[in-house]
Amino acid sequence: MRTSEIIHAWGKILKGEAPSLSIEITRECPLKCPGCYAYDPSHLGGGATLRELNDFKGQHLVDGVLEVVDRLKPLHLSLVGGDPLVRYRELEQLVPLLLARGIHVQLVTSAFRTFPEQWGREAHMNVVVSIDGLQPEHDRRRAPATYERILTNISGRQITIHCTITGQMMKRPGYLNEFLSFWTARPEIKKVWFSLFTPQIGDDIPEMLTSQEREQAISDMIGLRKQHRKLDMPEGLIRQFASPPRTPAECVFALTTRTLSADLKTTISPCQFGGNPDCSSCGCIASMGLAAVAEHRLGGIIPVSSIFKASIKIGRTRSRTDAQPLPAESQFRIVR
pLDDT tens across 169-186, in order? Predict the structure, then answer.
């Protein structure tokens, strides 16, 4: 992030506004992945589920997203789902309009279908393709977005690979290295990101990492970033996985990102996971990245986190009469 972007984001925080916005632009997805938080019954707070919301299509979706963006004026916009490429016709119209507004756009998809080559060449556009491990495991979990189909659909494009590390993966030594060796060798791949699986409180599912597996994953990533230059994760970020923010009120990502569901009005809080995520086991790369920034000391003395907390307080004071303030700590429900 450039200095000018940091200053711009800081300015929005001081005004009580969230610099980042995430929108689930559709309730639909052709996949049925085990452990998907978006379709967890508690994702939206225990009432309606994502599949039950009234979402938008066609020009209504384009106009609806633009209305939200023009009102909230985010610097960074993540388009998620469901799978956004379910609405590929709308995206072909919407993406250029968003980029023309100077917004950095990130689209997260399974790549079950292809997308315009131009998206990968845009300076302020990042297409992130989710991969659930090596081919045998991935194809079982994420059909019809199989390895074969993804490789066909990303041909000639530039993308970021994102993989969520699970307990199943860490039970096999060398798994992450094998994964990176396959994907980083491909010319379509600009960079690779890892997250760790984040459970809901009370979960007892195979995707969860034990404390020993979490420690091993951290150690593996630190070593592998030296072997695989496309693993775009600084060591300081990786080490944050060992001590994630304890509550949403301490999470810079949760405090600076507004998330809306597919009806374009339901707010998901305090972060993208929804429901009741176990913050002590958080594995979100965005959360760890911003935690690493907050830990940095200006001039080796003043932690960025202190400046951030003071800025949040100023922003909340200024936005008390604003219709769109940053959520106060008392408003946080442990909900993507």
Answer: 999 999 999 999 999 999
